[in-house]
Design goal:
Number of helices: 23
CATH topology of the largest domain: TIM Barrel
Strand content: 15-25%
Strand order of the largest sheet: 11-12-15-18-21-22-23-24
Structural class: alpha/beta
Radius of gyration: 27 Å
Number of strands: 24
Shape: globular
CATH superfamily of the largest domain: Glycosidases
Length: 731
């Protein structure tokens, strides 16, 4: 360190220590620098007081102390049998003995001793007049997978403690895929499902029905949107990628009639059979869009009745069913308690007239989960808190039943879930853990060809330094919660494990900056939970993907996400099926893109026209021209595979079932080990699920399918498509 550093240089050094870069290569390959204002704002969002030179120096000193002066790091990740832990040892103490003790994840202990100087040196620095070294301690190869605790002593007076995470070298991969089988499944947005039995929104009973139909056709999985918990007091906030908590489930997906208490509850069935209730239920069931508020107003009173009955007849008598609920509470622990407490407070305040948009608008005494006022509320409203915990138990019980049914029907994977990259800043997850989330910034993306103004997703990032300080437990618990009931899990925006585009509050999306994350450590934790839960991992890697991410995905056996509309060669032609990456899932489109019918009919472009989403006539004209070229390229690609139908004869002709079947056959013939068929494409839906760049202009996340589950899977056309895909995948 220099004796009198310039404040700017020290601030830049602090930014580097906190993972904030100085520049990046944009989608054109051009180097872009981050402004000083952006860097200062991001450091501020991280909690760094960069206006005070003394505070900057203290931040740097704390980092140096933890990195160079601490005997052991707070956390160390080892994998693949390479059990090395780097220690910080003063150069003048190399003759002293290190005694270490490892309490393993399985409860057993290992002990050992070594002379400090005998350890291999991997770094050296002079800091504040003292020479410090970093040296590698080799632990036995027998360290079991999981979280262990390593303690060490260097002579007298210097000791350390470290959370040791032993991880497998790769994520879990089902034997069927590892041996070359090519599997397929159906992908859907659960809320869009129609049925004669649901209450205006697709539910877990509908999901089970889809599982049974899909399994009968030879499918190996059913893919889903994120099922994360949403907002009890604001059901209309319905984007599954901006949830309240990723630890828990959206209770609107509960099938009320499937709850055991419903069959024996006269009060519940009397309410449901009343004229007013039945009339409203029929209205929301038939409406083409989901009325989330109306669905909530139907379900919540009935759920409350069923909970009260459960409490009286099950909990009081300590039945087997009651013990199952108590076991669920014990297993989910403090995380469940805080989520239920958050939702109970929010509902209580709303009933009192304060339907605030989030906990930041609550009375100050309620904004910290450990405040005396919050604890007093919990004591006064224990039944209300328990009600919200009970709903989570019911939701998970129904979801887990769908997965059990899938596996019993010999699906190789079963349910394929989706994990949002972050949460809404106003939800229970941020309220419960205000150390990890940085609410002074939002996650987004820099400008690219599809979003020239950049993107601000309005969801807060987690602080990488806080994650490391907490031994990656927040990330591990989230991944475990989301793998619990799935055979595969898609990580939205997998690049977030490497770097995230932080947009400081008050800045435009183009004015953000990249903050880097410990990619290998996070991938290792991901692999640990993947193997533990026997859950395949798919990384959504669309857009600009750094080489480091692709390399890590290959090393850790994370599957790629390949979308037909983006799989193109340099000349604009579509990638041939035999050239798809083996470890990938191939699909025609996604929730953020047009359906096949929408793509061919250009209804998505016409919709953007109507909503005035094009930045100018030049761009608009170019997009239409590119679409015409893409359609012709698609016909050419099908022809090369011997799949081109007689209709449509040209890109100008209407879309028909023959073209849809040809596209599905094209993907089914790919070398991708997984293929997903969007349910919208099976039934010929034109309207998209979501139109990026809109909020109120289009009913995002509200559109229902125009056919019921039964009508969909009993359709001769759908049955024929599924048979053809199954035959192609098996060939």
């Amino acid at each position: 360190m220099s004796a009198e550093p310039m404040p700017e240089s020290r601030r830049n050094h602090l930014a580097w220590l906190r993972g904030l870069g100085e520049a990046y290569y944009d989608y054109r390959g051009e180097l872009r620098s981050f402004s000083a204002e952006t860097r200062i704002a991001i450091l501020g969002a991280m909690g760094c007081d960069v206006s005070d030179p003394g505070a900057v120096e203290r931040e740097i000193s704390e980092f140096d102390a933890s990195y160079w002066q601490a005997l052991l790091p707070s956390v160390a990740v080892v994998r693949g049998g390479s059990n090395k832990v780097v220690m910080g040892i003063p150069a003048d103490r190399l003759e002293e003995r290190i005694d270490w003790r490892l309490r393993q994840a399985d409860g057993r202990e290992l002990v050992g001793e070594v002379t400090a100087g005998a350890l291999a040196e991997v770094g050296r620095i002079e800091l504040n007049g003292q020479m410090l070294t970093r040296r590698e301690l080799m632990l036995p190869d027998s360290v079991p997978l999981g979280f262990s605790e390593l303690r060490a002593h260097l002579g007298a007076g210097k000791s350390g403690r470290c959370a040791l995470i032993s991880a497998p070298s790769q994520c879990y991969e089902p034997q069927s895929l590892a041996t070359g089988e090519r599997l397929w499944g159906v992908a859907l947005q659960l809320y869009t499902l129609r049925s004669e039995a649901n209450w205006g929104i697709g539910d877990f009973a509908d999901l089970e029905a889809v599982v049974r139909y899909s399994a009968a056709s030879g499918a190996s999985f059913v893919g889903l949107n994120p099922l994360h918990a949403m907002f009890q007091t604001d059901p209309g906030h319905c984007s599954p990628y901006s949830p309240s908590s990723r630890h828990f489930l959206n209770t609107l997906y509960i099938s009320v009639p499937a709850i055991p208490e419903y069959a024996v509850s006269d009060a519940a069935r009397d309410l449901v059979s009343s004229t007013a209730f039945a009339s409203e239920l029929e209205r929301v069931r038939k409406h083409p869009l989901i009325d989330y508020s109306a669905v909530s107003e139907l379900k919540m009173p009935v759920l409350r009745i069923l909970y009260e009955q459960f409490r009286r007849e099950q909990l009081t008598a300590d039945t087997a069913r009651a013990r199952q609920f108590r076991s669920f509470q014990d297993d989910r622990g403090e995380t469940l308690r805080l989520h239920a407490l958050h939702d109970a407070i929010a509902l209580h305040l709303c009933e009192g007239g304060l339907c605030a948009p989030g906990w930041q608008s609550w009375p100050e005494s309620y904004q910290r989960p450990d405040s005396p006022e919050v604890l007093a509320f919990e004591a006064r409203h224990a039944d209300d808190v328990e009600f919200h915990a009970w709903m989570q138990w019911v939701a998970e019980d129904q979801l887990s039943r769908a997965q059990r049914v899938a596996l019993e029907l010999d699906m190789k994977i079963g349910l394929y879930g989706d994990y949002a990259v972050s949460v809404n800043a106003s939800g229970s997850e941020t309220w419960a853990d205000q150390e990890v989330y940085r609410l002074g910034a939002a996650v987004g993306a820099p400008p690219d060809a599809l979003a020239l103004q950049g993107q601000d997703w309005g969801i807060p990032p987690q602080d990488p330094q806080s994650l490391k300080r907490r031994q990656y437990r927040p990330f591990q618990k989230l991944i475990a919660a989301n793998m619990r009931n799935f055979g595969a899990l898609r990580l939205d925006h997998v690049m977030a494990l490497f770097r995230q585009w932080w947009v400081p509050v008050g800045f435009g999306a183009t004015e953000g900056g990249y903050v880097h994350y410990p990619l290998d450590d996070l991938m290792s934790v991901l692999a640990l939970e993947s193997v533990s839960h026997r859950c395949l991992v798919v990384g959504e890697d669309l857009g600009t993907v750094p080489d480091e991410v692709r390399d890590a995905m290959a090393r850790f056996a994370v599957y790629h996400y390949k979308v037909l509309l983006f799989e193109k060669e340099g000349d604009g032609s579509f990638r041939r099926p035999e050239n798809y990456v083996a470890r990938s899932i191939a699909t025609a489109t996604t929730h953020d893109l047009p359906t096949l019918l929408g793509f061919w009919s250009e209804s998505d472009l016409k919709l953007r026209d109507e909503l005035d989403l094009f930045p100018g006539e030049v761009v608009r004209q170019r997009v239409y021209e590119e679409r015409a070229e893409d359609k012709q390229h698609l016909l050419s690609a099908l022809e090369l595979q011997g799949l081109r139908p007689t209709t449509p004869a040209s890109a100008a002709d209407p879309f028909d079932e023959a073209l849809a079947l040809a596209v599905h056959s094209y993907l089914a013939g790919s070398t991708a080990r997984l293929t997903a068929l969007q349910i919208e494409d099976l039934i010929g839906t034109a309207e998209p699920v979501n139109v990026p760049g809109t909020s109120r202009e289009y009913p995002n996340w509200r559109r229902k399918l125009h056919l019921t589950v039964e009508e969909t899977f009993e359709s001769q056309w759908v049955q024929q498509t599924l048979r053809d895909v199954d035959r192609a995948r098996s060939g």
